[in-house]
Specification:
The chain has a single domain, classed as Cytochrome p450, CATH 1.10.630. About 55% of the residues lie in helices and about 10% in strands. A hairpin with a 4-residue loop joins strand 1 and strand 2. The termini are far apart.
């Protein structure tokens, strides 16, 4: 382990709300070893932004890591040319042009259908009744696993990210994760002969990736492409409904849904951290690291760094969010960022508020998670 100062945490309290303890870490021990997580956390924005790019030291290659064990070795767990080869293979499915020309109309059609059912209801839950099926419909299209139900897509994604964040080793979580990956493999086998055009499955087959890589990368797309957009859609809706003056700014044309989304993911990052392994002995800000040490880059903490964001604990869509790094900053920058921004800022949010302009919160919106964070419910009424 590193010789960083030690910070103990209550894991349950950290999952309930990580931000107070992250603020203490940034102030008192910005690089700190947490025994309960068996990892050294890097919490300040500049340190994360710099170190994420030094992949020769902070490596993504983690053959013994949870993600690799549970989901297979995907491109997120590779560095250098091995990573770029698979990223290039997937790019035709996720390029900004493909998103705009091919996926956006599909996103709009699916969202219209979902909203038509919600227009008939006086109350519903934004998380489960809107954000979940909207995200799942988009992900079914992008992956090519079109036979999956919305509920299946949501369930397998949740069980995989639960497994990847299971650093305390709860057996039931691991079992659910393996069941999820087995179901995904079944759907990949079902669609392999005739994958939908431009889907992730189709473009990786065309690029000649081996089936193990295709399986692992499809699981990666699902793990990051369902829960994070679901959390961001539901969370941004909640943020705007609890800050109605900011929603009015958007409706008046003085701000945009892109501003709201950028501020929300700075404020409550759906992906709170990214794990790395030290590949060679090194020294960072006076802290000695040794080969094999586990490091967590805390993106959620970077978004509230007071050096860049005044009143960082407040939601403010007028602020400059350009220094935020919710999608990462280095070679592992989220490959699905264009699809996520399109789905959330051009489709889900504007279509929801246009179709249902009289939404109001109808109860508490509990949040959970530190590695991945979002609201478990956002009840609304009309």
């Amino acid at each position: 382990m590193s010789n960083a100062p030690i910070t103990h945490i209550d894991v349950a309290a950290f999952a309930a709300d990580p931000y107070p303890i992250l603020a203490e870490m940034r102030r008192d021990a910005p690089i700190t070893y947490v025994p309960e997580l068996k990892a050294t956390l890097i919490t300040r924005r500049d340190d994360i932004h710099r170190e994420e790019k030094r992949v020769h030291v902070l490596s993504s290659l983690q053959p013994d890591g949870l993600m690799t064990q549970l989901m297979g070795e995907n491109m997120m767990r590779k560095d250098g040319e091995a990573h770029m080869r698979e990223r290039r293979a997937l790019f035709p499915a996720l390029s900004p042009r493909t998103v705009a020309d091919h996926w956006k109309p599909m996103f709009e059609n699916a969202t219209t259908s979902i909203l038509n059912t919600l227009k008939e209801r006086k109350q519903f839950d934004v998380t489960t009744d809107f954000a979940m099926p909207v995200s799942a419909a988009a992900l079914k299209a992008i992956t090519g696993l079109s036979d999956m139900t919305h509920a299946e897509m949501d369930r397998v994604s949740q069980h995989m990210i639960d497994g990847c964040a299971n650093y305390v080793g709860i057996p039931e979580i691991t079992t659910r994760c393996y069941a999820a990956t087995a179901l995904i493999d079944t759907h990949i086998d079902r669609m392999s002969a005739t994958p939908p055009p431009k889907s992730a499955l189709a473009v990786m087959q065309t690029a000649g990736l081996p089936i193990d890589s295709i399986r692992a990368n499809i699981k990666l797309v699902i793990s990051g492409g369902q829960n994070e957009p679901r959390a961001a859609i539901a969370g941004t809706v909640w943020a705007l409904l609890t800050h109605p003056e900011q929603l009015t700014m958007i409706r008046n044309g003085n701000a945009s849904y892109r501003d709201a989304f950028a501020e929300y993911v700075r404020w409550i990052s759906p992906i709170g951290m990214s794990p790395r392994v030290i590949a060679q002995d090194d020294r960072i800000n006076g802290i000695d690291f040794h080969k094999g040490d586990r490091v967590f880059l805390m993106f959620s903490s970077a978004g509230r760094d007071a050096q860049y964001f005044e009143d960082a604990d407040q939601f403010d869509i007028t602020r400059d969010t350009s220094a935020a790094i919710p999608f990462g900053a280095g070679p592992h920058f989220c490959a699905g960022a264009a699809a996520s921004r399109c789905l959330i800022t051009q489709v889900a949010l504007p279509m929801l508020f246009d179709a249902l302009p009289d939404l109001n919160l109808n109860g508490p919106a509990p949040f959970t998670g530190w590695a991945f964070r979002g609201p478990t419910a956002v009840p609304v009424a009309r």
